[in-house]
Amino acid sequence: MADAADTHSGLMDAIYRNQRHIYDLTRKYYLLGRDRMIEDLDVPPGGTVLEVACGTGRNLVHAARRYPDARFHGFDISSEMLKSAQSTVSRKGLDDRIALARGDAADFDPEALFGIARFDRVFISYSVSMIPVWKEAIAHAATVLEPGGELHVVDFGEQTGLPGWFRTALRAWLAKFHVAPRGDLEPVMKDVADSHGGQLAFTSLYRDYARYGRMTMSAAPA
């Protein structure tokens, strides 16, 4: 898996070496549902939060402001994106509350990266559509949750409630950035939730432009 991760890391760096400078400015118009997900995190006081594939750090900054008593951690496979993330975190004066590292979503070791084994909340925002082994990434994310913890995932849907021409144009545009919406996101999350004795709440947003899953783990240790 290391070779595949290195290949994907190189691809992401190539895509975002220049894109990272305008990423947040442009993506705010179509990465819908991110702020709803952050509101739904409902992080407990003093809780720990991890973002898988944190990109520019935009979501971590928003979440840290929303939950001032929590501790935040984020990693990404792209060293280029992490440059933007570290710059953003430092510029916002959040170095003491947000820790960043480089890691692979499919097999990251949170203790090696952050010195923490489990988190109260883990979230993945518009990244499973770019992770080749995305099913493994979701399954692995569930293993680093505290009992009763939650995994939140928001990403592109199938656009079933939107005009066909829109769906065709969006898919063609996303493909230029190696983005592929995961139509089976719900059953995959359901299988992971079931394997841990957890529950899944899943919803379609904005006429199925996006889909959002909230997996709650069993309160008993896995």
TrEMBL record:
It comes from the Bacteria. Transmembrane segments: none annotated. Keywords: Methyltransferase, Transferase. Residues 49-149 form the Methyltransferase domain. The keyword Transferase applies. InterPro entries: CFA/CMAS, Methyltransf_25, SAM-dependent_MTases_sf. GO terms for molecular function: methyltransferase activity. It holds the Pfam family Methyltransf_25. One of its GO terms (biological process) is methylation. The keyword tRNA processing does not apply. This is Class I SAM-dependent methyltransferase. The lineage of its organism: Bacteria, Pseudomonadati, Pseudomonadota, Alphaproteobacteria, Hyphomicrobiales.
